[in-house]
Amino acid sequence: MKRHVVLVGLPGSGKSTVGAALAESLGRPLVDLDQRIVASLGLSVAGIWQENGEPAFRRLEQAAMTEALQGPDSVIAPGGGWAAIPGELSRARELAFIIYMRVRGETAARRLGGSAARPMLGEDPLKTLKELMKKREALYLRSDAIIDNEGSVGEAVALIRDRMLLQHKELP
């Protein structure tokens, strides 16, 4: 039985928000990798990217995922780009049920609140999100389950729990 649940998808797909509700529903902690990295370095994600670059951030993300997968059963919410790191999905699949939180670019952009909230998305967050989707969706589709997350948090949690029960006959 897989011990963890990992939520993947674009920024704004609901990984952290749905992840918190799912974790509460399952009686497990939520491990938000971005929050963990920010807390350990005392810099925002944007600050880490600016000072150290994306490759350094991705290494931090890999290390944080390794630590989370070795920890207690949890719901893990990595950044949107974690799934694009070669080998990470395969490695996590050994211990985790991976769920793709699919969302339209427009929905993600609306949830993120514009470029001020996520400066890494640039001047046109919707355009950037659509470009990211083109680059990453084939990877996201390698997940164990796909959830269309255009509705409420409660609906997403119910869909995830149903999918987990369907595929595992019990909740991990």
Question: Top keywords for this entry?
Answer:
single chain; 172 residues; alpha/beta; Rossmann fold; five-stranded parallel β-sheet; 8 helices; 5 strands
What does this 3D model show about the protein?
By secondary structure, this protein is α/β, with parallel strands linked by helices. It has one domain: Rossmann fold (3-Layer(aba) Sandwich). It is 53% helix and 13% strand. The longest helix is centred in the middle third of the chain and has 17 residues. The chain is globular and about 40 Å long. The termini are close together.
Q: Would you summarize the structure shown here?
A:
The protein is α/β, with parallel strands linked by helices and 172 residues long. The protein is built from eight helices and five strands. It has helices at residues 15-26, 33-41, 45-52, 54-70, 88-93, 105-112, 125-140, 153-168; strands spanning 4-8, 30-32, 75-77, 96-102, 145-148.
CATH class category: Alpha Beta
Number of domains: 1
Helix content: 40-55%
Rounded to an integer in angstroms, the radius of gyration calculated over CA atoms is 15 Å
Report the CATH topology name.
Rossmann fold
Point out poorly predicted stretches: none
Kindly report the spatial arrangement of strands forming the biggest sheet: 2-3-1-4-5
Name given to the CATH architecture:
3-Layer(aba) Sandwich
Number of strands: 5
Query: What's the overall average pLDDT, rounded?
Result: 88
General shape? globular
